[in-house]
Design goal:
Elements (H helix, E strand, L loop, with lengths): L2 H17 L3 E4 L4 H14 L3 E2 L9 E3 L13 E3 L4 H4 L4 E2 L2 H12 L7 E9 L8 E7 L2 H10 L1 E2 L1 H10 L3 E6 L9 E5 L4 E5 L4 H4 L2 H17 L2 E3 L2 E6 L5 E7 L6 H5 L11 E6 L3 E5 L5 E4 L4 E5 L5 H10 L5 E3 L2 E2 L5 E2 L30 E5 L16 E9 L9 E3 L3 H9 L2 E3 L2 H4 L5 E3 L12 H10 L9 E5 L19 H11 L6 E3 L2 E3 L14 H7 L4 H16 L7 H16 L2
Parallel strand pairs: 1-6, 3-19, 4-5, 4-10, 7-9, 9-11, 14-23, 23-27
Antiparallel strand pairs: 2-3, 6-7, 6-8, 10-11, 12-16, 13-14, 13-15, 16-17, 17-23, 18-22, 19-22, 20-21, 24-27, 25-26, 28-29
Helix pairs in contact: 2-5, 11-17, 16-17
The structure holds oxalic acid and manganese (II) ion.
């Protein structure tokens, strides 16, 4: 037995003697194993089959009602020094964190099966991929990991070759929020998560490994682990550009990743690589290339319909695990804004009469293999990944941010990314229109101090002259009456086309203090009911609002103290001076 496999066995034995499971199941990742787990979970009530005529191989899982989302306040980055975790993370010393959770793990798997899940984040044969092993007492986690990652024997073989793997230990514990913790130990490449079965807390390959631990590894090894979707856009001449887009959670990455071109751009084709995470590496020629470490989607269900995302709507009609959606009388899954069917039972399996609020939980999810996506790109499995032409940041902003603008250069682009923010809605946090700063859409996911992270981004400038251009988009501009100015969804391709034309130097732009904006008429709006005046509004900047925005951003940088890179501060001051001069 090679040393990495014996290390793994020793760790499994150690965990088993501490957590005391009834038995241990090493996951092979085979389809038979998946089917058996589904049968077992259907028999014990963890899953219920949905209507198998209309939703073949679709199942419903209803979680504990207190366990329905990521828990940022219980998520910790445990570094020796608190400064290394930064003000962007909750911190606990590694020794205290281990002691706290080890006490909770003691005997936690009694009466349960312990699943050992070897997985590979990224194509099995890619030099950019990294492996991990998750030990869990949740069969729900095991089947979700099968859909979301390359899991099982092939990953185990790669672990044997690599000699290293991220260790993730998970137990649902007793689901008591008082005893729920998601701990990350970047220096040890390990994760301990207890007390939650929810995806982002429990499927450790996703946010915990592929973002928090990987961002730490990426910094040490010279690459980037980002909260970005990856999509290839092919024009009617067969030219394909790949772009990577970082938007905060619930700002439409999944919809954009699988968009359907509008009628006037019907010769275009969309190739989806990923909807949530991108790992970006410079290749030997200095070209930035991306892989999607995941192989499935864990997407928000409500709002998915034939208009917003027909591809997703069709994709989740088979081979899908639904979590916390409602059901119709004929046992089909139902969610708010599905636009077909009526709910008969809500996400807590209560008869639904409209008096219990929403029928589906607003954060109800689908888990489905990426191959189910009709626009799945074959290059999602390419070991060398895809070359990235543009990085696109975005957020939900009623005013300030125009529909699209281009950063002046990489350094300015880092400022654009670092200043990403999204407006909260009354439903979500209470105060309407409050900006939550979410640099590079990584606020909940960066495994180290943001100031060091920005420095890492800036360092790419010295390493190549072939960096992609950086853009910012905002699909959410509103008029004074609160109506959206831009139709969004498939129509966003019109904006992405402008971005591609900029990358190819095929189109000019107007220079403003905040970056390059489209000239009047340069975004094709044929067949759209949108006036030139509205387009002018969408592609104009309000200097006063931008000044305030930039001042707020300077205050935000101050919260990171002296660690903020000088180049980023200088960039912020350059923007302030340019806005002043524009008066
Ligand atoms: C998220 C997600 O919360 O992808 O960002 O689930
Ligand atoms: Mn996400």
């Amino acid at each position: 037995m090679t040393s990495s496999l014996s290390t793994l066995r020793e760790w499994v034995d150690e965990v088993a003697s501490h957590t005391r499971p009834n038995d241990i199941h090493w996951c092979s990742g085979s389809d038979d194993e998946y089917t058996q787990l589904i049968e077992q979970m259907t028999a014990d009530g963890t899953l219920s089959p949905l209507n198998q005529d209309t939703y073949p191989n679709c199942y419903l899982h209803l979680s504990d009602p207190t366990d329905v989302a990521r828990v940022e306040h219980l998520t910790y980055v445990c570094t020796d020094s608190q400064e290394d975790a930064g003000p962007n993370n909750n911190w606990m010393s590694p020794s205290e964190a281990h002691a706290k959770v080890d006490a909770l793990f003691k005997g936690a798997m009694r009466g349960r099966t312990m699943y050992v899940i070897p997985y590979c984040m990224g194509p099995i044969d890619s030099p950019y991929s990294r492996c991990g092993v998750e030990i869990t007492d949740s069969a729900y986690v095991a089947i979700n990991m099968k859909l979301m990652t390359r899991m099982g024997s092939a990953a185990l073989e790669r672990i044997e070759r690599d000699g290293v793997f991220v260790r993730g230990l998970h137990s649902t514990g007793d689901l008591d929020p008082e005893r729920r913790f998601i701990m990350h130990f970047p220096a040890e490449l390990s994760i301990k998560s207890i007390g939650s079965g929810y995806g982002g807390n429990a499927l450790l390959g996703k946010k915990c490994h592929a973002l928090r631990i990987a961002s730490h590894q990426a910094r040490a090894e010279g690459w980037l682990a980002e909260h970005m979707m990856i999509v290839g856009l092919e024009n009617p001449d067969g030219e394909i550009h790949y772009i990577a887009c970082a938007f905060p959670s619930a700002c439409g990455k999944t919809n954009l990743a699988m968009l359907i071109p509008p009628h006037s751009l019907s010769g275009w084709k969309v190739h989806t690589l990923g909807d949530d995470i991108a790992w970006l590496h410079l290749d030997e020629e200095g070209q930035l290339r991306a892989i999607n470490p995941e192989s499935g989607y864990f997407g928000v269900v409500p709002g998915t319909n034939r208009k917003t995302n027909e591809n997703a709507f069709n994709m989740i009609c088979s081979d899908t695990i639904f979590t916390n959606v409602a059901r119709t009388a004929n046992n089909e899954p139902w969610w708010e804004d599905k636009r077909v069917g009526e709910p008969a039972f809500d996400w807590q399996n209560r008869a639904y009469d409209g008096s219990n609020g929403k029928a589906a939980h607003p954060n109800s999810r689908f888990t489905v293999a990426a191959r189910n996506n009709p626009t799945y790109s074959a290059l999602a499995d390419a070991p060398e990944g895809v070359p990235i032409s543009a990085i696109v940041f975005g957020g939900r902003r009623k005013r300030v941010a125009p529909l699209v603008y281009e950063a002046k250069d990489w350094r300015h682009g880092v400022l654009v990314g670092a200043s990403v923010g999204s407006e909260t809605t009354a439903a979500a946090i209470g105060e309407v229109g409050v900006i939550r700063r979410d640099p590079m859409a990584m606020k909940p996911f960066c495994g180290y101090n943001f100031a060091d992270y920005w420095q890492h981004w800036l360092s790419f400038e010295q390493r190549t002259d072939k960096l992609p251009r950086i853009f910012h988009v905002n699909w959410f501009r509103q008029d004074d009456d609160g109506h959206f100015l831009w139709p969004g969804f498939g129509e966003n391709l019109r904006v992405l086309r402008w971005i591609i034309d900029r990358c190819e130097n095929r189109i000019g732009a107007k220079e403003t203090p905040v970056g390059y904006l489209p000239e009047d008429g340069d975004i094709d709006v044929s067949e759209l009911d949108i006036s030139p005046e509205v387009m002018r509004q969408l592609t104009a900047i309000d200097i006063e609002r931008w000044k305030t925005e930039n001042e707020h951003f300077a205050d935000y940088l101050d919260t990171f103290g002296d660690r903020v890179p000088d180049a980023l501060r200088a960039e912020q001051r350059r923007l302030a001076a340019a806005l002043e001069a524009a008066q």
